[in-house]
Structure formats: structure tokens, C-alpha cells
Amino acid sequence: MKIKLFISAYACEPGLGSEIGVGWHWVLEMSQRFELWVLTRASNRHTIEPWIARHPEYAGIHFLYFDLPKWARFWKKGLRGVRTYYNIWQRLTNRIVKRTMQANGITAFHHLTYGNALWPVSDYGSKQTFIWGPIGGLETIPEDYTSHYDSKSRLLEKIRRSIVKRAVKSRSFKSRCRRADLILCKTEETMSLLPSDTCRNAILFTDVAADIMPFADTIIPHTGLDLIVVGRLDAWRGFDIAIIALSKVIKTIHDVHLTIVGKGADDERLKKLVAELDLQENVTFTGAVSQEEYRRLMMKADIVLNPSLKEGAVTVSFDAMSMGKPLIAVDTGGYTRYFGPEYSIVVPRLGRDETIGAIAAAIQRLSDTSLRTRMGGAAKKSASNFSWNNHGEEIRKIIERTIADN
Question: Has residue 99 got a pLDDT over 70?
Fold first, then answer.
């Protein structure tokens, strides 16, 4: 008989990337060993139920759906207002968690998404056998980087540093940590900020794995050196340092191009920077694209860059691995520990100028076609070791052990 487990997965939907896709993958993997009750947003129902109908082997997952009525959420649109809405959603769903767990004899609760250590979890669920994460959200960006942001982004990061500093000392944060029987931490920085008496229940554990894709052998011919960065255009994702690194590389490698995939608040600043550096012919902004177009652009690229200054674009990095693309990334103290030198170049997050120089040097190094080919082959070979199937086994074992010990 399978162990019963309740999962709170606000973000959980098939066919998407980022945290939404992570929530979905975790649910599928855990369903192989546990009988699951999964609480998610009602807006995800229109994609979940048709997917389950096409994959009846997963029909045993009990999905529960909740959203505020339309009239009460008119103000929420996309990511706008998500923090406020999420907080309300958590409070209003606590009764669903309690009723469902009691009615079905469920004693283990896993808060999966959103994995932000600063955001609340179910009051009832966290008093049971409580598995929390993978969590992040305590990472901050040094002023050496933020001083180059626009005024709004500088202010947001300053506020964020202040919030994190106060939050880790707050009673609510400490209470969540002490209630948790297992804390899965995305990064070393988050783990280091947990109360010292809760560290024995915490482990470093990434939330993403490689999605092995059947089209990964496709070759899209092109000329020159093609680089790609993917993610929301937020200042902390470091797209500006990728652009400046490109400006250094182009002095010796003229036929090089950077594709920036995504949209966001930093769009105007980045485009202005491209113009100031006279890189209009070497940089393309695609805006948001479909999953199909994203995969096509990834397959066309020679090198995948992830200049994010804290945990971000993790799915893209693992996609690079499964597609056989060498990765250049800034070390975030989290997922980057899975990327070895045989198929990636992970540069330390030092001073801004040093990091830019290290990224430029890495691009220069990977301009060697034979080296890229070797590293790409090693990346693809390694992908099977970090597949969702393998990661799922790790997930299931650690959660089983935690439940058994409680």
C-alpha cells in the first residue's frame, strides 16, 4: 500500500517550464511511490485534466483545485500581484488541507510550490509531518552589481536585502523552520540563513532535473558563434553582464551573436545598453516565445549562457545539458554543483568586472569548435545521470525516509 501524502503545489501545470513545470514533474515522480492529494490553482485545471485523460497511468493522483472567484481576483494578471494573491490563497486553502488530510487519514504534508522561504505555508499542514521545499528566496545581490541597475531595480534589491535581513529573524520564519521535518534548500546561501537548531533537518537539494528530449539530435545549420540567454528580463538575472561580456569578445571574434529570449521590466535598460555598445547587429531580443520556438532557438545555439546572479534559469541550464550544449553559468551555490568542467564553465560570482571578464574568457575558450563538440557530447551523456527519472528516485527516497522517521 502506498504512503499517503498531501502536496501543496500552487504552481503545477504540464507542458511549461520554470516553477510551474517543476511542480508538475515532482508530482509525477512522487506519484510512483505515494498516493497523492495535490492542491493547486483552479486555473491549472484546463491543462491538467486533459493531460491525465491522455495518460491514464496517472489517474490515481487526486487533484484538488481552488481559486478566488473572478470578482475577487480582477486585479491579478500574470505575475502582477502574485505575492499578494499567493498569500491570500494560502490562508483560504488551509481549511481544504485540514479537511482533506483528516478525511483521508493523511499525516504527511509537502509544501512544494512556491518554494520561497519568506512566503507562508498551510498552518495545519506545517503541524503534521512537514516537508518544505525545495526553498530559496533568501539570496541577495551585492551592491557592486545593483549600482548599475535602473532606479526601480536598485530600490527593489535594497528593499529585498532589508526584508531578508529582518525576515530570517522573524518569529514566523523561525516557526516554519522548526516545524519542518525536512527542509530542502536550493542554495547554500538559503541553507546558511536557517536557524542553527534546524540545520540538522536541512539538505541541499535542487528542484530541477534534465528533461530527456527526443529531438535533441536535431542540428540547425548556421554561421558564426551563436549564444543564447533565456529568462524573464529582471535585473538580477545578469543579462547586462552577458551583453558587456559579448562586447569584449567581439573585439577578437567578429561573427558572434547573442539571442535574448524573454520579456520583463529590464527590457528598456538592456536595449539601451546594447545601443550604447553598438551591438544592435549582434544582439536579438525575441520577447516571450512558445515552447516550440524556445526549443528551436536552444537547438540552434552553440553555447547557452546563464549569467543569473542567484538561482534562476535552472530549467534552461538542464535543458542545455539534455540538448548537448555547453553551458556558461555564474556559480549560485545551488544547481551549479551538478555542472562539471567536462561540459560546462561555471564562473565564481566575484566583483562585477571580474565576473564579466570570466564570462568573456569562457566564451573565447568555447569559440573552439572541437572543444564545444566534445563538451556538448559530454553534456548530453551526463543528462541521463541527472534525468527526472533519477532525480525522482532521490526525491522519493528522501521523503520516504522522512515520513518513516516521523
Answer: yes
